[in-house]
Amino acid sequence: MDGERSAVSGTRPLLEVAxxxxxxxxxTGLFGTRRETVQAVNGVSFAIGRRETxxxxxxxxxxxxxxxxxxxHLVERTSGTVRFDGADLAALRPAELRRARRRLxxxxxxxxxxxNPRMTIGRAVREGLEVHRLARGAEADRRVRALLEExxxxxxxxxxxxxxxxxxxxxxxxxxxxxxxxxxxLVCDEPVSALDVSVQAQVLNLLADLQVRRGLSYLFxxxxxxxxxxxxxxxxxxxxxxxxEEGPADALYAAPRHPYTQALLSAVPVPDPTTxxxxxxxxxDPPSPVHPPAGCPFHPRCPHPAKDQTCLTVRxxxxxxxxxxxxxxHKA
Length: 332
Hints:
By secondary structure, the chain is α/β, with parallel strands linked by helices. The protein contains 10 helices and 12 strands. It has helices at residues 64-71, 94-102, 121-131, 137-150, 167-179, 197-214, 225-231, 249-254, 259-266, 309-313, and strands at 15-28, 34-48, 53-57, 79-84, 87-88, 104-107, 185-189, 217-222, 234-239, 242-248, 319-322, 325-327. The strands form 2 sheets. The protein has an 8-stranded mixed β-sheet with strand order 6-7-8-3-9-10-12-11, with helices on both faces. It has a 4-stranded antiparallel β-sheet with strand order 2-1-4-5. The two termini are 19 Å apart.
């Protein structure tokens, strides 16, 4: 991918991830005497422009959350670069990184675990304002109330505790907390997966409205392709620490080129019960990131009829098949 241009807008991307690798060591065996290297993220590259949304999809354990934390510089990367507005986050001094982190925020998956149960909603939202010295005293109180109202909560919610709210209301509070420091990019890590379907729609509509009003960019992570289709004009599919397909959502959903993407889409429910679609059932389970297979990481489960020795021995690189549409498959 051209590192100087956004995939969609043609200008320098707000966020650029290039060849990102995250490996970490874990201890196993009796008394933790054996060490294993987990290859959580392997050579991931993508870019997000201003006011753009990239949807990142994949099954549990594929490395999505580790990737999100590496983007936010919350875990150490093994190699590769993460540039935000042209600056490499790993090269910043502590004070500079602190200022940059104000511009990058995260909305967590579990609204029940992401808020301190001993802290009022108002205090949780206010904390960011004070840490980054954006407001104090009466001005901070005013901004907290305005933020709560912006995300659809009453102003008096500031005095309540998380246990007094439903899951959807807690997630709204989490979004208000992220917005308090006026970020430019939100990493949404499975933000609606713990919510009921009707509440999911409300939160997704809120995120869409906020993007328009505030000019936000989103990295929207989910395992649900149906959700991602409604929020992201561009989608990247991740498997075993790698992006295997990326492209415009309309093209990817209409004609997926990677067999893993095809299998994922075949499992998405169709609203019309009279529509028949062949379900692709993949054999086995995803390989372990501790011992990934040689060649194409998907080959042990690949149903492609033309799979051959090349698939077993040579790792495919992301190749552009159409404008903005890249696929890592020898048979695509």
